[in-house]
Inverse folding.
């Protein structure tokens, strides 16, 4: 993720966590729960400054990962990540949610705050959609 720009190994870890959840765990499951999984896993590695729901003129970026100066030599990529969660029963809304998420991600990427805080070179813009507890879709805008 830091050097090759590949988030799939992290997504696979989250997928494993989701698969271990019971149906009762999913009753009130939403985007915040998914975000907490990612925040917890990303927090183990102190390479990035992690900002959650960072406000900008175009809304709130779900996750922004900013390179720490002391780790610049081992961190090529910075990230803005938009997260979405869809209950299994609402799977038919996937394309609509995907379209909405990509629109938000594009706006965030063009926002003044992101332009000022993150370097254009090496910026990854990613949409992650979790459906129920079995599927995670990723769409890279970069």
């Amino acid at each position: 993720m830091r050097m090759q720009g590949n988030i799939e190994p992290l997504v696979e870890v989250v997928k494993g966590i989701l698969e271990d959840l019971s149906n009762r765990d999913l009753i009130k499951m939403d985007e915040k729960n998914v975000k907490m999984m990612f925040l917890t896993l990303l927090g183990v590695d102190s390479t990035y400054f992690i900002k959650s729901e960072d406000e900008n003129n175009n809304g709130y970026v779900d996750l922004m990962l900013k390179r720490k100066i002391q780790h610049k030599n081992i961190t090529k990529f910075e990230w803005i990540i938009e997260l979405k969660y869809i209950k299994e029963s609402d799977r038919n809304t996937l394309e609509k949610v995907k379209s909405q998420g990509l629109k938000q991600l594009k706006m965030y990427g063009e926002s003044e705050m992101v332009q000022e805080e993150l370097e254009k070179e090496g910026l990854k813009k990613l949409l992650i959609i979790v459906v129920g507890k079995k599927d995670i879709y990723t769409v890279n805008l970069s």
Summary: The CA atoms of residues 69 and 85 lie 33 Å apart. Strands lie at 48-56, 59-67, 78-86, 123-131, 135-140.
